[in-house]
Amino acid sequence: MRVDKPVWEAGEVPEFKADVRNLGKRELIVFQAQVLCELEVDGDWFEWGASYDVRSSYFPVGREYHDIAVTLERNWHRKSDRATLRLSPRKHSVRIAFTMQPTGSDKGAPVRVVSNAVEIEVLADEEKED
Can you point out the beta strands (E) in the chain? Predict the structure, then answer.
C-alpha cells in the first residue's frame, strides 16, 4: 500500500493505492475493491459498513493488480463496536487486508494478506498548510 500525500488537512479524506500479487501456488479469486477488505487504523480493525456491488477477478499464480483505491471515508466501521472511522488530528498508521477466495474446484481455505503499514498525518484546523 502507498500514499502520494503523507499530510492531509482537516476535513480531507486520505486516499491510498494498494497492489496485490499472487505469489502462491493456488488459483484464487480477489475483489479489487476496498469494500470487501478490512482496514486497520492505529491498531483497530474496520470493515465496510455501506452497501456495495462489486465483481470478483480471477487471480491466477503470477497475476498482479495495481492501484486499487482505498479511502478513509466514514463508511468504515470498527469491528469491535461498529463505531464510524474518524481521524483525529495526529499521525496515523494504516494497513489493508485482502482476503482471496479459492476457485470452485479448490477446497482450500481463503488466503488473507495484510499490507505494509503506511503512516499519514492529519492536521488540525489551525495547522493547515498554506
Answer: 7-8, 15-21, 28-31, 38-41, 44-48, 56-59, 64-71, 76-78, 90-102, 111-114, 118-122
